[in-house]
Write the structure tokens for this entry.
Amino acid sequence: MKHRRKHVVLLWMLVCSGLAEAIEPISTSIAVGMAAALTGFLASYPNILYYFHECCRPEWISFNKTGLDVDLEKRLFGQHIATRIISKAVNGFVNNDKPKKPLVLSLHGWTGTGKNFVSKMIAENLYKEGMHSSFVHVFTSELHFPHASQIETYKSQLQQWIKGNVTNCAQSMFIFDEMDKMQPGLIDSIKPYLDYYDRLDGVSYQKAIFIFLSNAGGEKITETALDFWKAGKNREEIKLCDLENALSLSVFNNKKSGLWRTCLIDKNLVDFFVPFLPLEYKHVVQCVLAEMEARDLEPDKGIANQVARDLIYFPKSERVFSATGCKTIISKLDYYY
Ligand SMILES: *[C@@H]1O[C@H](CO)[C@@H](O)[C@H](O)[C@H]1NC(C)=O
Ligand SMILES: *[C@@H]1O[C@H](CO)[C@@H](O)[C@H](O)[C@H]1NC(C)=O
């Protein structure tokens, strides 16, 4: 068994490191011999494909632009600004052979508006293994950094993790969920990795992607969306510039944002602030219908409306936006079926 493991690891290293290609020019007889050995090996270990681990290679990491655009178009609702920025930002970044810095996106908005969902879409259209890829890392404050007193430990741990993972694979992706729950200062510890450096200690971070998710700024975004609604203007008329300044300021000055007075914003290390608008009734209905389709259920408008009606809407007087966005519809849908 031990012996077999060793073989598998060796083979994996061969495949992952591209040694297999390097060996190619060697004389045919050796190549034939090796092929024979390999075939024999595969025949004696039929489960070998099981062991084929994910590698940091184009076979496992390649961007599907159409896939991301289709996902954003068909599965994300009510987010015309986010859709456009995400598509352009990710596409521009991965098609740049020599990016000067890693891609840093900060996604802001009310709960249930699609921030997690979009991160997942990016991962799924970039890594063959999607969110299960060993090159995609999700950090949440509750899970990874729960104790305020240990912030110094967390800082060095986080640095080591990021350095270690980017050393393993330059095209790593790091998602920081619930940034608003992270202690101010923690995220400053990774600032050097987000900056315009060719190399730090021999490691280049320029191909990595960092995504911050946060509810911070949600009030400002909602205020703007409500102003448009009250003025009878179309929601699609809201432009990024209507939100961007208010957003970065409210994030910067909000102690609870996780980005509070951080030098990431100060030094413009965040490439894009992406606002997620609060969702209206009609978007919730769209979410429910999409979820039905995803579950291979017959789309039922009656049930979709029922689920949407059951949610709470705010502000109290106008009841325009869903308080939980599309977040709770999945469990609600279970109840109806
Ligand atoms: C890219 O995404 C599209 C749309 O989801 C899909 O049809 C296509 O097969 C994908 N291409 C690759 C190479 O995975
Ligand atoms: C990569 O990150 C994970 C956390 O997501 C951590 O547990 C692991 O030790 C890191 N790997 C390296 C090589 O540093």
Remarks:
- Residues 253 and 260 are 6 Å apart (CA to CA).
